[in-house]
Specification:
Elements: H1 2-23, E1 42-43, H2 46-49, E2 54-55, E3 57-64, E4 67-71, H3 74-82, H4 84-87, H5 96-100, E5 108-115, E6 118-122, H6 125-131, H7 135-149, H8 154-157
Antiparallel strand pairs: 1-2, 3-4, 5-6
Length: 159
Amino acid sequence: MFANLIRSSIAAAVVVTGLVSSAFGAGVDVNATVTGLALRGVDPVSYFTEGAPQDGNFAITAVHNGATYRFTSEENKALFNQNPEKYLPQYGGFCAFGTAMGVKVDGDPDLWKIVDGKLYLNLSQSIQERWNTDVSGFIEKADVNWTDIKDANPDDLNP
């Protein structure tokens, strides 16, 4: 019995270590929590399949670019794994308007828009309203800025 307890404790430690090490692997180009969770746990595929963000299940996950994504179903996870770029938010999930301004600030998964098949997030309702006044112009600016700021630490960019 004691041997089984030790084996199961070691197995649990190995699993936790693997999860933690992959979670902390999210780079500066992905907007993730300190634990490596992207989109605050929202299923990225749900924007496209459900037309709205849906909270993912903590037991259905995939790691991409060092960040952990949650999904509402195994089907959504499979769709994501087949083509992650189709479902990932632009600019690593940072605020699209902020990226247009040359900074990296949090993107709120509940403040979103799909434009030409791409998912964009914004920081706040007021920022999203401003972004909506010239979506194509801000996307153009953000696309240019992203190439310069993608690999920069957000703290080095923000005032």
